[in-house]
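Z., the sequence and structure:
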Amino acid sequence: MSGAVPLEIGGEDFKLDLLFYHLKLRCFVVIDLKMGQFKPEYAGKMNFYLSAVDDTIRHPDDKPSIGLILCKAKNGIVAEYALRDIGKPLGISEFKHLEKLPEQLKGTLPTIEEIEAELAGA
């Protein structure tokens, strides 16, 4: 499952930027795309998304969902403070060029072409 995913919580509509299911880890991966610098409030929003996905979509046999916030830039100390006491698996990463993916991650994530094809079909 991927692309802008609608999520209704408490009578309000939300949209997840990307939602994937990782077969080997047996969990959902929520990805929030941000075009600017990381802001602390993004961590709270991701925590909300992870709780909602775990309560409404996740099967009891699945592992807890993982969140990834992809930003143009991040300040390490701001990111550390924003995530320090959050108990859910959540990460922040700067994105530059996806074609420079580390070797150990190649093949475990969809290619740019696969993501574009999925989004075009949405």
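DSSP finds three helices and six strands in the chain. The radius of gyration is 14 Å.

Let me know what you think.
H.
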